[in-house]
Description:
Chain A contains twelve helices and 18 strands. Chain A is an alpha/beta fold. Chain A has two domains: 2-151 and 293-342, Quinone Oxidoreductase, Chain A, domain 1 (Alpha-Beta Complex), CATH 3.90.180; 154-289, NAD(P)-binding Rossmann-like Domain (Rossmann fold, 3-Layer(aba) Sandwich), CATH 3.40.50. The interface between A and B is medium-sized, with 33 and 33 residues.
Amino acid sequence: MRATLMYKAGDVRVENVGDASIEQPTDALIRTVRSCICGSDLWPYKDLAPTEGGARMGHEALGVVEDLGSEVSNIKKGDLVIMPFAFSDGACEFCEEGLNTSCLDGGFFGLNSGIGAQAEAIRIPQAEGTLFTVPSTDDGPMLASLLTLSDVMGTGFHAALMAAVEEGDKVAVVGDGAVGLCGVIAAKMLGAEQIIIMGRHPKRVELARDFGATDVVSERGEEAAERVRELTGGHGVHAVLECVGSEQSMLTSMQIVRPGGAVGRVGVPHYQAIPETATTFFHNVTVSGGPAPVRAYIEDLLPSILDGTIDPGRVFDQTIGFDEVPDGYRAMNDRESLKVMIRP
Amino acid sequence: MRATLMYKAGDVRVENVGDASIEQPTDALIRTVRSCICGSDLWPYKDLAPTEGGARMGHEALGVVEDLGSEVSNIKKGDLVIMPFAFSDGACEFCEEGLNTSCLDGGFFGLNSGIGAQAEAIRIPQAEGTLFTVPSTDDGPMLASLLTLSDVMGTGFHAALMAAVEEGDKVAVVGDGAVGLCGVIAAKMLGAEQIIIMGRHPKRVELARDFGATDVVSERGEEAAERVRELTGGHGVHAVLECVGSEQSMLTSMQIVRPGGAVGRVGVPHYQAIPETATTFFHNVTVSGGPAPVRAYIEDLLPSILDGTIDPGRVFDQTIGFDEVPDGYRAMNDRESLKVMIRP
C-alpha cells in the first residue's frame, strides 16, 4: 500500500510500504476514505531531524472497516468510521472521565506510534474504544465535515470548553488556521456574543466571519492586544482560544484575557514557559487545555454536522490524491492552502 | 492611635500615628477587635527595601463600626464586621461576578494602599461593598474563626474551588501554613476523599489531621512527588492547592497533579514562570487561582462557622497585644508560631 513518510524537515515522500494488517485481537483495519494534513504536521516539516527509514505521517482519517481482531465486537466490516487522532481503550479511568488522550492503553497516531493515517489503509489499535461509526454516505461536503471530527473540530471545541466559553461571552480566537476556525464555530455553538478572530489571511478571515466571527484583529503583538482591549470595553475577553502554540501567540493570549477569564490552549506548545505569571495570578486567570479528547466529543458534535447546523468541512480548501501529498505539505507550509484533504 | 509600620526587611515597629478617620462619603471607620499577621506579610519581612516613613502593615481584621460616611447605609454603628483583605464597591461588573479582588474601584489593604489593619482603628474605603456584618459576640474562639474570613479561610476555599475539588477527589495541599490548613478544611467541605497535607512541622501536621487530612507527606522535591504518586495509585491527585508561592512549591504542584487535574494557586508567586509547560499541556492540566475574592465567600462559609461545623480559628496559636507585634513577626518568620492574632 502507499503511505506518507517524512525523512527530514521538508522531505516528504509517498512510498510503497508493507500492507497494514491486524496485529492484535483488539485491532481493526480500515481502508482510508479521506485523510488530511494537519497544521501540527508542519512543526516536523520545519524541524524534523533526519530519520532512518522515514517517519509515518498523518493522524486524521475517515475509513471503511475492512477487517477486525477477534476481540472487537462493537463495529462491523463495512462501517464508515471516524478515526480520532489518538487511540484509546474507552475503558480505563481516564477514558471513563472523557480524557481519552490520557488513556492508559492509548497513544497518538502519526510520528509517535509509527502508524500513519496518510496512507491507503490504517491499523487501528484499541479499535473498540477508538473508532466511532457514522452513517454511511458518499456526499463529499459531508465526508469533509465528518473528517474534522478526527481532530480540528474536536480540538477547536476543546479550546472553547477549556476556555469556559459561556452564553453571552466575549471570546478571542488566536490563530486563523483550521483549528482556530473550528474554534469560532465552537464558540458560537456555546453562545458567545462577541467572537474576535485574530488573523490576517483574507480568505481565512472571511471564512471565520461565515462561521460566526464578529470582529477581526489583524494587528500583531502589543498592537493586537491593544485592539482587543478597545473592542471589549477595556478589559479584554472572557475566553481566549489559543490555537497556535508559539511564544508570541501565548503571550498575546495572556495579554487579552479579562480578569477572571480563561485561556484554553490547544496549540502544541513551542514555548518554554507560560508567560505573564504574576499578571495572570493577580487577575485570577485560568490556563487550561491540551490534546483534545476528540473521541469523547464526537457524540456532542455529530448531530450538528448531520443536520447541517455546522459545516466545519469548509476548512478544507484543497483536495489531492496521494501523488500530490508532498506538494500538499508545501502548500500548507507556504500558507497557500488552509487545510489539505487527501482522497485516495 | 497605634499602628504597625515596616521600615525595611526585618524592621517592624508599633508607633503612634494620626487617628484614622472618614475621608470619603463611602468610607467607614472601624475600631479593631482582632487583627493578625499573615504569611504573606513575611515576604516583605524578608525583602522589603528601606522605605521613608515606614509602610503600614496588616490586611485582616474584625472590627466594630465606629463612624460612617454619608453614603454608607447597609451597616450601622456598633455592628461587628469582617474586613476582607481587599476593599471593593460590590457594584462593578467584576464584583457582580464575585471577583471582588478585581473591583474597578477596589484595592488591597496593607502595603499597597497605605491602610494597615494591624492598628487600633481602620478607615475602610468602599465600606458598603467591603464590610460584612456578623452576629455580635465576645466568644474568643468564635472571634478567631470569624477573623479567618478576612483572608486565610476564604483563601483556602478559593484554592479548593480553583482546583475544582469535587466529591470523592484525591487532593494535595502544598504548604502547612494557615492558608494550607484552611485549604484542608475547604477540601473536606467540598467532599474530597483523600487529603494529603505536604508539610513537616509536627504541630501543623497534627492540626491538618484534625481538620481532615488523611495523609502526610513530609518529603521534599522529587521525593515528595514520588510519595504522592505512591499514595494515589501512581497518577497523582485530581486537585492541588498551592498555598506557598515559591518556585519549588509550584514545581511540586505540577509534578503531583493527575492528567485532567487542576492546580489552584493562592500563594503570591515568587517564581518567574509556571513550570512544566509541556507536561501540563500533554496532561491537560488546568492552572487557576489568584487573590481570593474572600468577600464573596463569606456568605458560603459563615454558616459553617456559626454552627461549629468548622473551626478555622484554631490556626491562631498565639495571641499578642500591640507591644508584641514586632516579636510576632519574628516568631512567624522563625516558624515558631503558625499564625499570630493581635488583640488590642
